[in-house]
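quick one, 484 residues, struct below
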Amino acid sequence: MSRTISTELLGVYSIVTSVFMVFVTILNSGLPLAVSKSTTINFEKDSKKSNGSVSSALIISLIICALILIVILLGKPLLESYFEDNNAYLFLLLMLPAIIFTGVYTPFKGYLWGREKFFHVSLVEFIEQIIRIITYFVCFYLFSFSNNLFPAGISVSVACVLSTIVGIIIFHSLKGRLQSPKTCFKPILKSSAPITLVRLATSLMQPFMAFLLPLRLVQVGFTSEQALSQLGIAMGMTMPLLSIPSTIIGSLAMAIIPNLTSLNNEHDTLKLKKQISLSITFTLCCSFIVIPFFIALGEPVCLFLFDNITAGTYLKDACWLIIPMGVSQITTSILNSLNLEVKTFKYYLYSCVILFLSILILPKYVGIYALLYGMGLSTLLIAVLNIIKINKTIGASKTYLGIILKLIIITIPTVFLTKWIYNLSVLFFPRIVSLILCGGISVIAFTVLMAVFSIIDVQYFKIIYKVKIKEFKNKNRKLKSKKT
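---
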């Protein structure tokens, strides 16, 4: 999309999708987690209560959908004034079915999550993305639209509708049923409300930043077009790349919540400490492992992907953001598992103050970097406060500073190695081949250095490998005996 629309129009896209994400967040944050926790606790003991939590969440979600629909339709003058673009409101309307069907799927997603059916959840999301990509290309190349953003809006809605249908089919195939929600409304609301408020506040900051930052940039000397263009590059190109590790960390967060909830209910402190420590260490490794590649080759990567070198400069300068973003993400999920949702909300409010002050003060000195630095400082505050609270709750004292220092040390030689190999390989190979080659070498080199510095345990992977081989052989034996 960045190659077919201007960076200014990409800025408009970022503003509209930030509003869209506010509505999606209301539906898709607290409710699935609340249903997940209820399913984890009650599925074996009381399946009716587990199914009832799905029903209650579905009713709550549909009510919220109706309210969102009213707000969007009645708030047309306000939204059009905010967007300052004639086609932006229509673009939001094209994504309205996506909002509604996200609300429908939310309770079923929580049920699958609670039963630890992670493959099924991932399958639904994978299908959604594939449909979204195909629909976008079909709309873009086969139909003519007055605005190049419209195919993106249509593709989001079509993908959400079809993936929701798939999700509901999977729910029924696993013998999930909708049952009386009478006793489930209160616990679902109690558990979901704080998380929804936290993530709603998070998503509200996006349209607020999208409005305030261009305004501040104009006040310090940018034209309106330049301000929108800079926002489009930062939010539409750089931030998606910075968010790559968060996809893996988000998967981990989804996987550990049912387990941590069970350990917390069973008061198994020893296992709880070990699981939390492993999760945070894994998050740090995932965050750091891409940093050498981004520092060394941020500009060539963005030239290849977006044909925009400015995005690469932002990526190279702001890739440290990945670390506090990842740690704040996983530690927030851990606190939610420990029933400390109110604390995560409070910490997020503190971080909002930091972000607001950064956007208010820093554009005069650093321009668009005010957004990147502000996000880094605010997520760093959340990460620190979360770790302090986790340690206090489980009786631990781990700071992870030793691991972070080791990871910083091994980042330096990996950056130089990656840069050197790229400069050499680009003389002989096309850019895409050189980037893939250097990306692979960077990850391998960093992983080897993590093993050398004892950040990861090689023996652990050997044990896992042996266990998997044994399981594979046992399955083969069973298959052969069945055939016989």
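Residues 188 and 403 are 38 Å apart (CA to CA).
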